[in-house]
Amino acid sequence: MKNLVKIIMPVGAFILASAGAVSTNAGSSKSTADIQGYNRNSLTEPCEEVRLCNNQGTQICTLAGDQAFEQVGANCSKVLYHKN
Question: Quick check: pTM over 0.85?
């Protein structure tokens, strides 16, 4: 009987720890830091700073009707979103 308890206790602890690790969502949090949004004036001009976007939600980040993009390299092409 003591041998059975010695085997079952570590297995039970492992199952409990595994269930706890699976049920947490610590790795799924999104960053809420503001991202500088840029406007594309033309293909020959550099990107112009427009506003800060938090890249959350589903509403496209705009200012006065101009859409803001994230600057990737020399291009302003990545769509940014903003949630108030």
Answer: no
